[in-house]
Specification:
Layout: H1 21-49, H2 55-58, E1 65-67, E2 73-76, H3 92-102, H4 114-127, H5 137-146, H6 153-169, H7 172-182, H8 192-200, H9 209-218, H10 231-247, H11 253-260, H12 282-291, E3 305-309, H13 313-331, H14 349-356, E4 364-365, E5 376-386, E6 395-399, E7 414-415, H15 422-428, H16 444-451, H17 453-461, H18 475-479, E8 485-486, H19 487-498, E9 509-514, E10 519-522, H20 534-540, E11 554-559, E12 566-571, E13 576-585, H21 596-622
Parallel strand pairs: 1-3, 4-5
Antiparallel strand pairs: 1-2, 3-9, 5-6, 5-13, 7-8, 9-10, 11-12, 12-13
Amino acid sequence: MIFSSPQNRHKRWYHFLSIGQKKLWALAGVGAVVLAICLTVLIVYSWRAAGYDMKQVGQSLPGSLLYDEESHVVATLTTHASMPVRQDELSQCLVQAFLAREDDNFFHHNGVDYIALLRSVLRNILSLRYKQGASTITMQLTRHVFELQGKTLDRKLLEIVLAQRVENHYDKYAILCQYLSRIYFGQNCYGIREAALYYFGKQVNDLSLAESALLAGIVRAPSLYNPQRNRDLAIKARRETLCRMRELGFISQEDFDRAAATPLPSSFPVHRPTAAEKKPEQLAIWANAELDQLPSVQRERDRGLAVVSFLNLPIQQYARQAVRRAVHAVESPGASYPNEWLDLPCHDPQFVKLFASPKRAATLKKPGEALQKGQGVLQCCVLVVDSRLNHRGNILALSTGREETDPRNRWQETVKPGRVAAPLVFCCACLPGGSAHHIVAHSARITGSRLGFDIVHNFIEGLNLETTLPDKQHANDLFDGLFPVRKIDLARVLFDLQNMGQAYGLHLISGVWSHGQRLLYTAQSVGAAEYIRREGAIAVSHLPPFRYREGEPLVLHEELPEGGGQWTMVFNDRGVAAFVWMGVETKQGEEVLLSSEQKKLISHASLALATELHQQARKLLRSTPVKKP
C-alpha cells in the first residue's frame, strides 16, 4: 500500500487568526466604513463648531433685563457683578472641592475625559437609559455659554468638539473662573461671588474648607441641597464632597473630620450682594419673585434672560408720579390739594380745606428722618390690573412703596383685612346644600354665626391664602377678618371675586427668552378655573362693603383694623382694577396714634389715588391699539 502525504501549504498570516481571506476583507470593509463615518462626523461637527465665537467664553457675564409690553427696558433683574471671578480669588481648597465634585481630571485632559465618557456610555447602555453624561467642567461651561440643550447624541458630539476648541483658546484657570462665575447656587445666587456672600457673608478667597465643600455640593441640585430648605441634605452633600476629596488625597483625615464637624450657619442670608451695592428696583424684585415660580427658566437664569412683562410703561410712569403726589399732599404742611383730584367723583370741597391746613402733627416723618417713639413714615403701594377679556390678571403698573429703591415688597406683607374680608364670608351663604338660615345678614359676624364655623373656615382655607386661620374658640375673629393675609392675596381674591370667582390671579411676566433668543416660557391665556362658586361670587360682588352705582366703577374703601392702614379697590368689568394700600409704618413694636384729621387725610388720599389711577389707566388703554393675546 502506498501512502501519500498531503502537500505542505504555505500558511498566510491571517490563518494564524483563524480568519479566512474573505472574512478578513469583509472586516476590513466594515472597518473602512466605520472609519469613514467617524471622519465624516468629525468633519461635520468640526465645521459646525467653527461657527461658534470663542470670544463669548471670555466675555463678562450677561445680565437679565425686564421689558414692558412694547419691548422697552424698564429694569435690570440681575444684581451679580458682571466680571468673572479671578484666579487669585480662588483658594486651593475651593478649587479642589469643585474638582472632586465635578471633574477630578480637569487639569489633565483636553476638555474631554475619554475614560469617563466610555464608562458613562457603557453604564447608559447597560441601564438602557441616559443616567450619566460624563461632562467635564469645560463641557459644562461650553453648554452654558452656547446654550446647548437636550440630552441627545447630537448635542453631546457638538459639546465635545466645542470643549476641545475652548481648551485650545483658554488656559485651565480661565475656564475654571468662567465656570465658577456662571453656575447657579440656589436662592437667586449666580456665581461663586454671590454664593459666598449670601451663604457665609465672605469674599471668595476667605472661604474655608467646609464652606467650599458645601458650595461644591449645592451645585448638583441647588433646590434639593439648599441649606435654607433642607439642612440635613445640605450636610450630606458637603460630606460627600469631603469624602471624595479625601479619596483623591486632597485633604487628610484630620482635615476631613474638622470640616465635617463644622455646623452650618444658624440663619441665611448673611448678606445679599448687589451690583456696586445698588439697591434693586421694585419691578426687579417683583419680576424675580415670579421667575422663582417658573421651573422652565431656572437653568437659564445664570446665562441672562430677556423677560417681557405686561407692564404698560405710560401707566407705570404715571402711577409713580401719582404716588409721590398723594404722599406729599398728606404729609407736607400746607400742601395744596392736587389738581388731578378736583374732577374725580370722590372729590369733596371740605377736603380741599383740610389738605390746605398749615398744621400737620409731628407724627409723620419723611423716609430717612430719625423716628422718635410714636412717630412713623407714611407708605403707599399700588397695583393696576387689566380686567379686559383675555387680559384679565395682567399687571399694568405696580409700586411696592413710595421709594423705587426700597427693597421691601409690601404686597407680600400681611395685614388683617377686617371688613374687607366680609365678601368671603357672604360667599359661604351661597354654597350648595345650604338651609334657609344661610342668608347674607348686614354683618359678616352674624352671617358667619348662622352658617357655622366649619363652613366658613373650610371655604376660606380653600382659597390658597398663606395664613393661619383662627380656631373654633375664636370664631368671631374669623368672621370679622382678624387674621393675617398678604396684601397680594387679598387683592387676588377680590379681583377673582369680581370676575365671577375664576382664578385669574395677578401676573407680571408675559414671556421669557434666553440670551440666545430661545423661548423658555409664555403666559397662556386659557380659561381660568372657578374656585369661588360662580353664583356666590355674582351674588356678593355688589353687596357691601362694595359700593356700586349704575354707570360708575365699583369701589371698596375700608380702614383696616389695628392700625393696618387704608385699603381701596376701584374696579370695572372689562376695564381696569386699581388697588391702593396707604398706611403708617413705625419701629418694631411701637404704635402710632393718628389724629382724626390725619386719618381723614390718608383715607381720602387713598380713595382719590385709586380713582385717579383707574381713570388714567382706562384712558391710556383706550388710546392704545388692542393686541391679540
